[in-house]
Design brief:
single chain, 262 residues, mainly beta, Thrombin, subunit H, globular
């Protein structure tokens, strides 16, 4: 499984959503039906969702579904990765890193061109960007574009998913969940070995990991690895995107945005 595909497209599964309560989990439509039909990636930061459409246009959406275009139409048509960090949207384009500040209308290249050409996945944590390259090596990048290797070369070779939460990086490796402390540079297994074998996507928010299994079942896991099923088994089966913000999980199904409280 390619980490970049997991992070960009999150997963291919769907949700049977309505305004009724399913196992104490209530879903509601956000905005108009079909508004998200052309969306290819979504991140959340600063109380907004930021999404890129097929033609490379960036949009900002508030919690009520009101959206506006950010920048010129098609400005992000070369974006390979979209990452949120401290109210800014960071992109990788043709192996180079860019910082985009929607509130200021500022867009700039950071670091040297091509420095991130081998990046498979990236997340933001505590003011820095953490990325895993194709050989499984982890890097930490500051906002000025300077970077350093973290740990041994190839240490994250088996990571298929990457998230940031609670001062840690969280990865799924060979079906098992791990967390890595970026301050002490130590990692540890969380929960039981193999618990995450069927997981196809995860996002972090509010001290919990939301994850979806291959059969479309949604789970919520705390920092100690204790998990519970959310909603009916197989509730998610054709959703194309998943993102979490402010204790709320957002999903896109058939081009429409839905949300549920954590």
């Amino acid at each position: 499984m390619k980490l970049k595909n997991v992070l960009i497209f999150a997963f291919v599964c769907a949700v049977f959503l309505s305004s009724v309560s399913l196992n104490a989990q209530r879903w509601e439509q956000v905005g108009n039906k079909g508004d998200w039909a052309n969306t290819v990636d979504i991140v959340a930061t600063g109380g907004f969702l930021y999404s890129i459409e097929k033609d490379g246009t960036l949009f900002q959406t508030d919690r009520n579904g009101n959206y506006k275009q950010i920048g010129e139409k098609g400005l992000f048509d070369n974006a390979d990765l979209l990452v949120a960090l401290d109210n800014d949207v960071w992109t990788l384009e043709d192996g180079s890193l860019y910082q985009n500040s929607p509130s200021k209308g500022v867009w700039r290249q950071v670091g040297k061109p091509g420095d991130w050409k081998n990046t498979e996945g990236m997340v933001g944590l505590n003011g820095k960007l953490y990325s895993i390259e194709t050989d499984g090596t982890l890097y930490e990048t500051s906002k000025d574009g300077t970077w350093r290797q973290i740990g041994n070369e190839g240490e994250f070779t088996h990571a298929v998913m990457l998230e940031a939460m609670d001062d840690h990086l969280w990865t799924v490796e060979k079906g098992t969940l791990f967390k890595s402390n970026m301050k002490t540079l130590r990692w540890q297994q969380v929960g039981n070995a193999g618990d995450w074998e069927e997981t196809v996507a995860m996002v972090a928010d509010g001290g919990f990991l939301w994850s979806v299994e291959a059969d479309g079942t949604l789970f919520k896991t705390d920092k100690n690895g204790n998990y519970q099923q959310v909603g009916e088994k197989g509730l998610l089966s054709a959703v194309t995107h998943i993102v979490a913000m402010n204790n709320t999980l957002y999903v896109v199904e058939n081009g429409t945005l839905y949300r549920t409280k954590g």
